[in-house]
Write a structure and sequence with these properties.
Length: 136
Amino acid sequence: MVPPTELVGEAGRERLLTDRAGLIYKPARGYGGEGVVAGWEIGAERWAEHLASGVPAVVQQRAVPVAEDGVHADGTPWVGEAVLGIYYLPESGFAGGGARLHAFGEPFVTESGQAPPSQRAAILLSDGRRLDGPAA
């Protein structure tokens, strides 16, 4: 699922201010969660500063995770949430994707850009290859 996404400069500013608790701000450049701000985690003033910063960015509707039952490699049960990634490169288009289970209820994006441990299910490459194995 890709949540509804809008460019900050094209979205109605008043609606973005009003709907802060249901939105996430993502700079158009960077990776690893750098610069990502969850509207529900900050106050209205800081949210307004991000929207007015002039940094090319998008806002997305908050996607609420659903618990998924899983099993560790040793057979013990594990409850997680699916984290799906689609990778797109402007010069070549679709570049692959991946899926993994992440511990349910734990934050996935951190300000430092370091994601917490997860269970990688597969990495799908644009040429059709599939890479399986434990998270690095």
